[in-house]
Alanine--tRNA ligase (Alkalithermobacter thermoalcaliphilus JW-YL-7 = DSM 7308), 470 residues
Amino acid sequence: NKLGLNEIRKRFLNFFESKDHLVRPSYSLVPQDDASLLLINAGMAPLKNYFMGKEKPPKNRMATCQKCIRTGDIENVGVTSRHATFFEMLGNFSFGDYFKRESIHWGWEFITEHLEIPKEKLWVSIYENDDEAFEIWNKEIGVEAEKIVRLGKDDNFWEIGTGPCGPCSEIYFDRGEKYGCKSEDCKPGCDCDRYVEFWNHVFTQFDKDEQGNYNPLPNPNIDTGMGLERIACLMQGVDTIFDIDTIKHILQGVIQIANIKYNEDNKKDISIRVITDHIRAVTFLVSDGVLPSNEGRGYVLRRLLRRAARHGKLLGVKGAFLYQLADRVIDVSKEAYPELVQKSDYIKKVIKIEEDKFQETIDQGMDILKQYIDELKDNNEKILSGEKAFKLYDTFGFPIDLTKEILIEEGLDIDKDEFEKEMEKQRNRARVARQNEGAQGWKEDAFSKLNISEKVEFIGYEDLKAKSNV
Ligand code: ATP
Ligand code: MG
Ligand code: MG
Ligand code: MG
């Protein structure tokens, strides 16, 4: 049963429409009216006001497929089989309407009847003392007690500070022993690739007050999230999310441009997957109106783009190439995101300009680093000061891993502790900048700031350069 990613998305939304949910297209990656969040990282994030009761939802049952960015997962990308910085999250939501029982029953119905996942492959986790969830899974659905794992607060309780919170229940797919770590107690929650978490159901049933009391909410909510790429990976029986129909097409573009083979050298494979992932994130960020800059969202975009360019260099690619790959992202994503086609020229232009700028940065940084290296050698020293390394990184945008690599080739190294201290200072500065940015609000579509219409007419390179503020 090799369902394509686009088909799975459609089936999910149709299913919840048939359960009387209002289906909405994905919200922008840029949060609207929410200073607490840099980029949307879950299906529930744009709906927060409905959950908090600050705004009345258009309907008390909704379903979406939401674009998400999680830069916190960046180190995992290309390394684990299941993490991306950009991914789509399928979700059904209840605002004080249905609760645990319906959420679990419909979730099970969708995956076992509509996606036809064999029941014996499925496991679930619940919050350690959520006996109500246990009863529903065990007595009503018929999942064996041995396949219901109780997990602690870190894994299966959702809360942020005070306010609405509650236990979670996750659904896992057992990919079989060959993916396992072979440890005695390997089960859902284990870090290996055997049991893949793909759907999280959050039961928002408490309101946590300032004193730390969990007060039952009169109208509890439901918030679920299922990674579309993950469920596609499981449905298509492939090893990683990079092997599913849509993402594979992008990955093949990377291989073609780099003119290398996949599955021959693990280090190169990671670079290939990193580029594949980051170009997806970059394409969608630019489409949602983000431009490269040195702070906030713009910095996330710049970092992802430059990291991808850097991995291109590792693969021996000469010159700008990422902008060409955007075409492949658009091709496989346009069914759900037709605006990508309209914005295609604009997206590629923004990427190309930033790639070219990065090339200049590399050339300039190499000159400075060369000077530093000569100085070290003249003075018979082996360690580059963290301050200098940070200056290269922060002022000249030269990637720190590149600095490290070149130094090591010369038998030298960096003062890591000092560098980390400088980084910490920078993080604090960024935090303050972010708060200030949030305070200005993002009510309007970020695109309107660019003075271009939704159709995206041509804007000159000079104009773009000026606005991307470097
Ligand atoms: P994991 O433990 O695998 O990192 P999570 O518990 O952090 O996942 P949730 O916050 O519960 O993830 O998000 C709901 C669902 O979104 C997950 O069950 C998964 O299917 C998907 N998901 C989460 N993070 C990623 C990611 N980085 N890339 C792709 N899909 C993801
Ligand atoms: Mg995670
Ligand atoms: Mg998890
Ligand atoms: Mg989870």
